[in-house]
């Protein structure tokens, strides 16, 4: 008889075998007063999963089930839970715990809590149990990090919003994207496509900046008002001092990445907000590039519970449809999907589905 409750999930044993998933049983932390137990029905596939299982973001606690864009049904709730009811369809994102007592937590900045814990790969104090992610039968999460999903949003479309969606929504609303503002999204990928959808829904004039014109038609279908390709000579010249905000999802900062050209299109005190987290890359910033228009450079990490609920309501009210390819969950399909994502062979998110076929009804 195991000491702790157990779930079943698809785990990777090591970075050396990152494309090989194995269905295993694993321990989960004791069910707490504020916990919600969720039977998973869908989970988005995030680049974070690839960075983790390949070891690109450093050492991890293996074996590990990744996946942190979770949608499922709340099976039971702890005796002190007030935010979620059993039977609700709910979502869980990349974070599953924070102290809820510090200055950050009390000011809708709980994602910046010094004690925050990730949905997978974190170690619970006292028990030493490693949190396991959404390529599993169930997940057990503190109620603050469990979000009711509006009926209008299908599970396979809601799942990628739990990480990619909120990663783009938070910096947009925190930096004033809305009517009368001109916003650029750098990179039209899994993150960037949410940036376009949300910036438009918030009422901003929305542009996409990409290396080539290959995704221009997709950008227009998403509602983009304009498209700039950095491969075009002088691409930035007609747009200098015209943008209020740039949200960058760039995943490489090589010699061809001319930050000064991007910053030149920002208006006075315009903001460059970076949300991409490429491996082993450094963004080179020259003080001279900041002073001509007094630009501000920053970043953003996920988003608060309040922002998550706002984002879901906006998506339901505006009929926002994330661009998703569904894949039946299995060990083989997870390996193939991870490899496709590493090659950017997706437009624009994957969601693993058909959980009942692997884990039972």
UniProtKB/TrEMBL annotation:
Database matches in PROSITE patterns: ADH_ZINC
Positions of the Alcohol dehydrogenase-like C-terminal domain: 190-315
Pfam families assigned: ADH_N (PF08240), ADH_zinc_N (PF00107)
Alcohol dehydrogenase-like N-terminal domain residues: 33-151
Cofactor: Zn(2+)
Reactions mediated catalytically: a primary alcohol + NADP(+) = an aldehyde + NADPH + H(+)
Subunit structure, as described in the record: Homodimer.
Protein name: alcohol dehydrogenase (NADP(+))
Organism of origin: Pestalotiopsis fici (strain W106-1 / CGMCC3.15140)
């Amino acid at each position: 008889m195991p000491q702790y409750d157990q779930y079943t999930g698809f785990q990777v044993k090591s970075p050396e075998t990152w494309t090989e998933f194995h269905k295993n049983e694993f321990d989960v932390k004791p069910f707490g007063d504020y916990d919600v137990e969720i039977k998973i029905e869908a989970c988005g596939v995030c680049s974070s999963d690839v960075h983790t299982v390949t070891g690109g973001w450093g050492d991890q606690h293996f074996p590990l089930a990744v996946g942190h864009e979770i949608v499922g049904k709340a099976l039971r709730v702890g005796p002190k839970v007030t935010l979620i009811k059993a039977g609700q369809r709910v979502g869980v994102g990349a974070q599953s715990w924070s102290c809820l007592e510090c200055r950050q937590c009390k000011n809708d900045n709980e994602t910046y809590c010094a004690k925050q814990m990730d949905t997978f790969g974190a170690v619970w104090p006292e028990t030493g149990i490693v949190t396991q992610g959404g390529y599993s039968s169930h997940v057990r999460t503190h109620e603050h990090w469990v979000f009711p999903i509006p009926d209008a949003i299908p599970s396979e479309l809601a799942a990628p919003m739990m990480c990619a969606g909120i990663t783009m929504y938070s910096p947009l609303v925190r930096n004033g994207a809305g009517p009368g503002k001109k916003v650029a999204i750098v990179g039209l990928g899994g993150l960037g496509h949410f940036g376009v959808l949300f910036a438009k829904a918030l009422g901003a004039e929305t542009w996409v900046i990409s290396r080539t014109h290959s995704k221009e038609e997709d950008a227009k279908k998403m509602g983009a008002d304009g498209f700039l390709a950095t491969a075009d000579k002088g691409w930035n010249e007609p747009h200098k001092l015209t943008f209020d905000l740039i949200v960058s999802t760039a995943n490489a900062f090589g010699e061809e990445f001319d930050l000064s050209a991007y910053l030149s299109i920002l208006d006075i005190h315009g903001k460059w907000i970076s949300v991409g987290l490429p491996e082993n890359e450094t963004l080179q910033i020259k003080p001279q590039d900041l002073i001509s228009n007094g630009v501000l450079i920053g970043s953003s990490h996920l988003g608060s519970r309040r922002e998550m609920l706002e984002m879901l309501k906006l998506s339901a009210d505006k009929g926002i449809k994330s661009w998703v390819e569904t894949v039946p969950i299995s060990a083989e399909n997870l390996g193939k999907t991870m490899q496709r994502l590493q090659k950017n062979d997706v437009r624009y998110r994957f969601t693993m589905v058909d959980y009942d076929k692997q884990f039972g009804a």
